[in-house]
Write a structure and sequence with these properties.
Layout: E1 2-3, E2 11-19, H1 23-32, E3 38-41, H2 50-53, E4 58-59, H3 68-78, H4 85-104, E5 130-131, H5 137-150, E6 155-158, E7 161-168, H6 174-177, E8 185-192, E9 197-208, H7 229-237, E10 241-242, E11 247-254, H8 266-271, E12 274-276, H9 296-310, E13 315-318, H10 324-330, H11 332-340, E14 350-359, E15 362-364, E16 376-378, E17 383-384, H12 396-415, E18 435-436, H13 440-443, H14 446-457, H15 464-486, H16 492-513, H17 531-534, E19 537-541, E20 545-549
Parallel strand pairs: 2-3, 2-9, 3-6, 9-16, 15-17
Antiparallel strand pairs: 1-18, 4-5, 7-8, 8-9, 10-15, 10-19, 11-14, 12-13, 13-14, 19-20
Helix pairs in contact: 1-5, 1-12, 3-4, 4-12, 7-16, 10-11, 14-15, 14-16, 15-16
Length: 556
């Protein structure tokens, strides 16, 4: 073991701090820069985010054949009774403005031969309303936003910086703590992985935009960075977290040993693709009246049921009946990726299986994107706004991120006028007494063990027995990780592992608490929906435990 002394650290101050570089973080940064200086930290390269991987598009009412009421209705139906109606109405009715704003920033969406937006359709939607850029919508949006950020002199981007903990009043001098009555966030400690150094980033307002928790599961469509960092940090800092039991499993990820759960967009089914078994039989008509365009939770469970019934490894997505040139034009990325793995989707069916995709829960926020910690905002997939309820309607995610990043900016721009940061009272990160330990090899397998436990016991179909087994084993692993963390110098792998363990326990606790099946949470012990007692949100707090509350806007 080698004992390291203290390293000189850097202090960065700004009016706004953004943690994460997806659509929510970049949108907020561009808007906030009009009101002050912005520091943005991201733990990999700035383009590495769930936004960049989003294929389908952005749902918004952009046609005379559509209406706000229809989009709201589709969202509420998909959310199975616990969407926050005010939040849903907010994203739907202001969505077209945000889409037009993206176009002003240079996003080029696909258009038809008449020059009109080529609006697609996905599962759960009653109308064509998906604005897209072929099957690379997220990439197109991310690229345009990054270009706008690069040219803004008031935005500084720090790549390869992994946030460790949010800085709250608990980190201040004890004399200062006594006069602070509410939890308050002043920034974050972040590991500069290029220098192996922990720096302080302080700001008057902080936006969490860290994205998803997908890598808590063995199979996920999410990028490697999706390890639940924002949810875990906010929870440890004392924020309310909600509806963590509702994890959306995308029904169709590419089934191939080298494909790393590559997503086959729901837009392919919206385009007319049909799900079939290995012998070519269709099956979705046995599970839902909308057949292959049923909501994702129903399609994922249907596939899971067919696989278990037949003993197969995968089902198949068949688009061979569509003209090859139209398939290639609409889905060039999917077509070319499948070709890389020896599958010509215009001539043969695509093997697919479900994979963890999108978290409907997260850090609870109000209608202004404020969390229960003063000065801390959240937007994007890290946030629980109430929009998605128990199941996300396809392509509502990027829309939600755009709208709530906008709302966060409106509130934060006013908030910072009345805030000063006690920079001289916030100490540097201390590594005194920590070691570079050879024991790391003893727990290096914990990440895969967590992912396997979550996949086997807390996946598409759950039970009390499975959840109980998962809870015991995950808590044991989490305790070992926490003990190791307290006596070991931080590194990125350890930080991600700690966050994954925290998020896993939150998901399990929430799932064990909900005694019904609703949306994405299906349990064999309580197979029916029960609105009498369980038509509520599940909220968890580090100190106040787990509670239920009626769906509706949070008030802090």
């Amino acid at each position: 073991m080698e004992i390291h002394g203290e390293k000189e650290t850097m202090l960065y101050q700004s009016d706004f701090l953004v943690i994460g570089s997806g659509i929510a973080g970049l949108t907020f940064a561009l808007k906030a820069a009009k009101h002050g200086t912005v520091n943005l930290i991201t733990k990999k390269e700035r383009a590495d985010s769930n936004t960049n991987y989003a294929q389908g598009g952005i749902a918004s009412v952009m046609s005379q054949n559509d209406s706000f009421d229809d989009h709201i209705r589709d969202t509420l139906i998909c959310g199975v009774g616990i969407c926050h109606k005010d939040a849903v109405r907010q994203i739907v009715e202001t969505g077209p403005e945000r889409i037009k704003e993206l176009m002003k920033w240079g996003v080029e969406f696909s258009r038809d031969e008449k020059g009109q937006l080529d609006l697609g359709r996905e599962g759960g939607h009653s109308c064509n309303r998906i604005v897209h850029a072929k099957d690379l919508t997220g990439h197109e949006v991310e690229l345009s936003l990054l270009n706008a950020v690069k040219t803004n002199p008031d935005i500084s981007v720090f790549e390869e910086h992994t946030a460790i903990e949010l800085i709250t009043e608990h980190h201040l001098d004890k004399t200062v703590q006594k006069v602070i009555k509410s939890p308050h966030c002043w920034g974050t400690y972040a590991l500069d992985t290029t220098q192996n150094r922990v720096d302080r980033f302080l700001a008057k307002a902080v936006l969490l935009a860290t994205g998803s928790i997908g890598h808590v599961y063995l199979h996920t469509t999410n990028p490697d960075i999706a390890t639940g960092d924002g949810v875990a940090m906010a929870y440890r800092a004392g924020a309310w977290v909600g509806n963590m039991e509702f994890m959306q499993f995308h029904p169709t990820s590419l089934f191939h040993p080298q494909a790393n759960s590559f997503l086959i967009s729901e837009a392919v089914r919206g385009f007319g693709a049909i799900l079939r078994t290995r012998d070519g039989e269709t099956f979705m008509e046995n599970y839902h009246e909308m057949k292959d365009l049923a909501p994702r939770d129903i399609v994922a469970r249907a596939i899971d049921a067919e696989l278990k019934k037949r003993g197969d490894d995968c089902v198949y997505l068949d688009v061979t009946h569509s003209p090859a040139d139209r398939v290639i034009e609409r889905f060039p990325n999917i077509y070319n990726t499948c070709l890389q793995y020896g599958i010509d989707c215009t001539k043969e069916m695509i093997p697919v299986v479900p994979a963890a995709h999108y978290a409907c829960g997260g850090v609870a926020t109000d209608m202004h994107s404020r969390t229960s910690i003063v000065g801390l905002y959240a937007a994007g997939e890290v946030a629980f706004t109430g929009v998605h309820g128990a199941n996300r309607l396809a392509s509502n995610s990027l829309l939600e991120a755009l709208v709530f990043a906008h709302l966060a900016n409106l509130n934060a721009a006013e908030f910072i006028k009345h805030v000063s940061v006690p920079a001289d009272k916030i100490p540097e990160w201390s590594e005194e007494g920590t070691l570079n330990s050879e024991e790391w090899v003893l727990i290096s397998h914990d990440r895969q063990e967590i992912q396997r436990l979550m996949w086997d016991y807390v996946g598409i179909v759950r039970s009390d027995l499975r959840l109980s087994r998962a809870e015991r084993r995950i808590r044991l692993i989490a305790d070992e990780i926490e003990d190791f963390y307290k006596r070991t110098r931080v590194n990125e792998e350890l930080l991600e592992l700690r966050n994954l363990a925290c998020v896993a326990t939150l998901i399990i606790d929430s799932a064990r608490f909900r005694k019904e099946s609703r949306g994405l949470h299906f349990t064999t012990d309580y197979p029916e929906r029960d609105d009498r007692f369980w038509g509520h949100d599940t909220l968890i707090h580090q100190h106040f435990g787990i509670q239920m509350c009626l769906p509706g806007p949070f008030e802090w």
